[in-house]
Amino acid sequence: MTYATTAATAAARAEAVPAAHPPADRAVLRKVLGASFIGNFVEWFDYASYGFFATVIARAFFPEIAPHTALLATFGVFAISFIVRPIGGIVWGAIGDRIGRRTALSWSILIMSGATTVIAILPSYAQIGILAPVLLLVVRMVQGFSASGEYAGATAFIAEYAPTDRRGLYTSIVPASTAAGLLAGSLLSAGLFALLDDAEMASWGWRLPFLLAAPLGLIGLYIRLKLEDTPKFREMEAQHEETRTPTAELFREHRGRMAIAFGATCLNAVGFYLILSYMPTYLMTEMGLGNAQSFLATSISLAAYIGLIFLMGTISDRIGRRTALLAASVLFIVLTVPLFSMLDGASFFGIVLIQIAFGALLTVNDGTLPCFLSELFPTRVRYSGFAFSFNAANALFGGTAPLVATWLIGVTGSKLAPAWYLVAAAVIALTVMLFARETAGEPLED
What we know:
With 446 residues, the protein is an all-alpha fold. Helices cover 79% and strands 0% of the residues.
């Protein structure tokens, strides 16, 4: 086929395709942001509740073993549930790229909130023995599978609606929603630990947060079903450009982009779970801080994180995604160990300031990464590329972070072991970002 024939064919197709959809108005954007917010909020409220109540869950499901080993087992269940996340990323990515972003997000929130609610009614070890932790693991794996499409899908959904020059700001609502879920979990945890005694907490108190997933999930599903799919996806459908095998195309044509996405996510995975999820347990078990104080300190730092994440999204629109992500890696390499060292012996006020500093560092990465990953892949495989790379990194480094941190402290006897683990993740992210191109300010690739 000659170049002239190819050009003529392309021109004919272009005439047959409707004009590009105009930018979404503010009312539609608000609905898009709300639909994206609620799903991630439910997911991370659940993860926060599991992490914050880890010591109680350990007693309920692993009462026959030593406390440290039981805590390891509890975090082990947390980590194993992440094994299915790359598989879920492929499945939800394929649905999102072939059938539609809205369809994938609607089904994922329905299954995710249902699985989370089941955790609330699981019988304990005292009631059914060894079957209890087995059921906990199964339900966590279902939850992990369904949740694996949330973060990537919500970000891609927003990115394909948002104006080019404010894409970083709008997509920053996704990490903000995860932090909001953690904050809600932290506040509820602090309240329950303050109001209930140990017996009440072990019996039924820890179950309450998981029961909230059902109504929240139904609200999110209702909002999503009221939206159209994204302009980018509808344009791709109109041009009959969607691929029947997005996963195959992804691995065949975009391996380099996947490697960059995976490496860049390593810092996000380890940093997020260590700083925002594992930290209350670390403060209680290693620093001797009380339950209520640990959760209060984390809640304050999360509130600061949410405010800073939007600032960082705006900054990334101006200085670029690559620059921001490189800066985040360098900052973590330089400051992580000193900040962890300062926790030992610090007052409550000092601990709060250190956690806010950690949160500020994390926003430099978290406020930029979702938009970068959305811009990295073309429309045909955007959901699949984002979901698989992001979930693979979180499966290997994110979900295992509390387990690895607890294990490293036990093996080395050093409270600084988690800090060095975070530094290693920052080195990986810095290395891959040196090979990445700048994506800010450009139209999404088709």
